[in-house]
User: Which sequence fits this backbone?
């Protein structure tokens, strides 16, 4: 049976879940979205947290009763591209509710004390943070702190 994606927006982004929080990772091609996603999953599982990929490079988004749902196009489910290796089959979950948007930016553009920001996707306002490109550990710390702030 073919899935109907009529009300979905296909965004050039990665999507993952850590614990019960869905994260949408945005940035230009080659900015390190997949590397960051895999790093976040590895770091979370090191501390016995549930973490899984939802989508690599293309995330289908739709509004489900005021909640933004991210899922992967069926044709590329469980696949991610690792630059320098090629296509890699990875464990994944079919979908998640998105709670946080992460934008990868050049390190020199990262504010030392950023203001709170949000992004509206499909009529839903979500908290948005920026992380420095190719600085995986610093990005992990920023995302972890932001996720804990969402829970308070």
Assistant:
């Amino acid at each position: 049976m073919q899935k109907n994606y009529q009300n979905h927006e296909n965004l050039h982004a990665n999507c993952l879940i850590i614990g019960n929080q869905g994260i949408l990772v945005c940035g230009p091609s080659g900015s390190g979205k997949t590397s960051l996603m895999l790093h976040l999953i590895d770091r979370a599982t090191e501390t016995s947290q549930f973490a899984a990929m939802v989508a690599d490079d293309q995330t289908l988004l739709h509004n489900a009763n005021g909640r933004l749902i991210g899922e992967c196009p069926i044709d590329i489910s469980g696949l991610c591209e690792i630059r320098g290796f090629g296509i890699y089959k990875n464990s994944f979950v079919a979908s998640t509710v998105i709670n946080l948007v992460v934008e990868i930016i050049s390190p020199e553009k990262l504010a030392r004390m950023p203001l709170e920001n949000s992004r509206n996707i499909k009529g839903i306002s979500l908290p948005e943070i920026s992380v420095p490109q190719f600085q995986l550990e610093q990005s992990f710390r920023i995302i972890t702190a932001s996720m804990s702030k969402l829970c308070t």
